[in-house]
Amino acid sequence: MRKNRTVSNYKQYYLQTKAKVLEELKTSSGGLSSQQAKDNLAKYGKNALIEGKKKTTLQVFLEQFKDLMVIILIIAAVISTFTGELESTLVIIAVLILNAILGTVQHIKAEKSLESLKSLSSPSAKVLRDGKKIEIDSKDVVPGDIMLLEAGDMVTADGRILDNFSLQVNESSLTGESTNIDKADVEFDHEMPLGDRINMVYSSSLVTYGRANVVVTATGMNTEIGKIASLMNETKERRTPLQISLDKFSSKLATAILIICAIVLGLQIWRGQPIMDALLFAVALAVAAIPEALSSIVTIVQAMGTQKMAKENAIIKNLAAVESLGSVSVICSDKTGTLTQNKMTVQDIYIGGKTLKPNQLNLDNQLHRYLLYDAVLNNDSSLVDGKGIGDPTEYALLEMYRQVPGIDLGDKGLGISEEDLRGLLTRKQEVPFDSDRKLMSTKHLIHTVPTIFVKGAIDVLLDRCVNIRLDDEVRPITEEDKKQILAQNQHFSENGLRVLTFAYKESDEDLTPETENGFTFIGLVSEMDPPREESIEAVARAKKAGIRTVMITGDHKVTAVAIAKKIGIFNDSDMAVTGLELDKMSDEELEQKIEKIAVYARVSPENKIRIVNAWQKKDHIVSMTGDGVNDAPALKKADIGVAMGITGTEVSKDAASMILADDNFATIIKAVAIGRTVFENIKNAIMYLLSGNLSAIITVLFASIGGFSVPFIAVQLLFINLVTDSLPALAIGMEPGSPDVLSRKPRDPKVGILDKSLVTQVAAQGVLISVGVICAFMIGQQTSPAVACTMAFSTLTFARLLHGFNCRSQHSIFKLGFKNNWYSLGAFAVGTLLLALILFVPALHSLFAVTPLTYNQLLWIIGSALAPTILIQIVKVISEQRRQYKTLH
């Protein structure tokens, strides 16, 4: 049973009075003394983040040799040295070192997460010490310090507000929401989510407006950002389904190889073979059985997948993440900027008793014109080259103004920009917005009449309105009018819209907070960050692909649910919960409800990790998107962490496996399709390698049991495995995806690569190829063991090159053709050319232990190699006709 978060976890200073906070921290509004600061620094430590222990590059490199198959190859290299096969030894060692380097490059990522967290801290901070204002290094800030914040400052520690002067702070790095937060010196009597604690400031946030005096309550690892750093240190990256599957496969294969090699070694000694000859047989068998190129092929195919994804704006940091994307069954997506446009936009306007769109406003209507005056003149933001500067809520009003017919300078009509309008109707007086009043007012001369425009929150401004304007009529506002206005506001709010109220009055009095009353109501303007158009289609495609999309956001529940409904994430039967509601749930309760919850609002970093963990416990492969520092631990915990490339912090990018260059949810679905294709191609490449290796094993066993000489030496098998095999396997990795790849359900991560179907195909194909190779070997035996060895090597090489066409897909070569994958023809041509050079260039004969062949022997090789592919293709054609018949009937 999970314990709920309580005040015992950490001091919740936002629930305490200022006096109580100052008393607990043994400080005063004049700050600490120098001696107190020194003592606190010794007690609490530097205001810095502690970094987790990392593995060195050498440690990662050495870990690549832990694999059982690698150990078998090392033993094979040692035995080759004692048996005089120096070339084999050198080739095996070169292969092992190459694979270890590839593995190190693949697994070592720059662990910059904590450095990025540290870089968020300002190098200095202004504090009161001994009653004097001084500037100190941010690392020397201690609990109890009185920190002085002004616009433009980076907050360097968590603190409780003592004196507030219209402070606004951007906490997007912590909460994920880009809207500036109005801070206030208030007291709370109940627990609140981080985003609603307006009497606190937090390390890494930015002061955008106003100023405040703050008592520092936490520094270093005890800050909210420090807790995130701790979560990241504690969070281990999960191995991907492919890594788990390949590890299991490698373990089983290595065990089987050891058993078979031991049997063959015992059999050879029992037959009276010298120990060195018997060891030579065992080495040949081990080298034949181990697919040395497998890890390299998997890495390269994944790398090819990353290139395809990069073209779709999905940048992959961890190669293993490519395949994992194909297994994703749950996507936990951030709302702002990923599913939405990250741009506040005016939606509906309630004016004159009607609901209108911006382009329905009429400049000839004085009521509409006064709304536009209010929106433009009572506004501190601007639009430069289409980019908003200032508060997003305010520059959305300027974009609304530009949508009104006749505003555009190219149109006939007013033809005046917002800057020109401000120049004509200059601001005479103003009372800036602050969080206590929830209003902003400016005074102008409109047609020589002094006019005050005001905008703000409906709960404050409506009570200050004495009149209402309906077109050209101004009359006293009634209770019925107020009911209608409040009902419209409720309707907007229930649909997740943010509402601003507009009013004015004609008055010659000085504009002060005390004179902000007696207004005439103009109307309501609703805004929202609208969904991306492509998000709706992408969520529908995800649903069709068997992927559940869940919204996790720092925004309010009502707004989140409204957006989720529009996008198609939230249905009537779904649930929405807040972070506080989630905290109160036990693990068992969450496990029961997890599949019904579509929206999580006002969540903390701990909440996000818990949500990801709950889905993973149900054996789902989870992708998590995010852009803030607060998202980083969950991005690291998820199977696929997806960071935003445009709005994302460096911390989130470092913690993620994939970065969206366009911050678009639809890109994730494209990446999932590529991931599924990559897995299919890897699976087909593994089928190709294993069936070829199995044919070599069967041939070696046949020779051993029959008492013949070794059919292949180690260097020949390594040539086949590393050179001739790798080219067709890479060509298989370039196979384009099936059109119906997103119509299938995600694959079950519990089902390994070696499922029943693959094992059956590998066994059947391996037996067929081995029959051809054994036939060629026996024909060569009629001449000499050297000719037999050359014919077996040549037949196996050519047969496996041809087999590359069989393993491209489950379809026959007649249905696939070559136009969509010319790499397969190229691989076959290069492999055949290399084999021809070995057979026909005398200088290479001794290196690969081959002997010249007759014309008839070459024809036997071609026939023996072709036969398995012809049979496999006949079976594929018959299977296709059966499937087609079943579909039609």
Give an account of the 3D structure.
The chain is of the alpha+beta class. Helix content is 49%, strand content 17%. The chain contains 34 helices and 26 strands. Strands 10, 11, 14, 15, 16, 17, 18, 19 and 20 form a nine-stranded mixed beta sheet that branches. α9 (241-270) packs antiparallel against α10 (275-289). Mean pLDDT is 83; it is low at 1-10, 109-122 and 409-413.
Arithmetic mean of pLDDT: 83
* N-C termini distance: 55 Å
Binned strand content: 15-25%
Shape: elongated
Helical residues, percent: 40-55%
**What's the gyration radius in Å?**
36 Å
Unreliable runs, pLDDT <50, ≥5 residues? 1-10, 109-122, 409-413
Total number of helical segments? Answer: 34
What structural class results from the helix and strand content? alpha+beta
Describe the biggest sheet? 9 strands, mixed
